[in-house]
Amino acid sequence: MDIDDHARGPLPTTTVAWNYSVPTSKAACEALWLTAYLYQWDGSQYVGQDIQTKRGVWGAFRNQNVCLGPAAGFETDVMPTGYSYRITASARTDATGGAPTRKLRITTSKAPE
To answer: How far apart, in whole angstroms, are the C-alpha atoms of residue 29 and residue 33?
Structure first.
């Protein structure tokens, strides 16, 4: 995904998150894997700025065990206002290369006016 002329919003400004059903077991949840790469346009090419790799998190919520899909956030210290960016990402059921890919969601916030 390309973000042209990025406008700063509340931290984190840009989030890449799991957007698929989550497992109901701890082991399968903690195997979920998401990696996201952030590139900044320097006028002639995209240059790598940040890489984040996250796993699913198993925890208790309202007395029930639940799985939270992985999510990575790129904050304003690596995404200053006024530049253009490219994000590439992959979400998989496991970190192995042959694991099935899953849907993900990329959201970015604009500064309040």
So the answer is: 9
pLDDT at 76 over 70: no
Contact 33, 99 (CB under 8 A): yes
pTM exceeding 0.90: no
pLDDT bucket at 97, cuts 50 / 70 / 90: confident
Distance CA 82, CA 15 (A): 18
Q: Which two tokens stand for residue 61?
A: 């919520």
CA distance 102 to 84: 26
Instruction: Give how far Cα 12 sits from Cα of 27, 64, 78, 92, Å.
Output: 28, 28, 10, 23
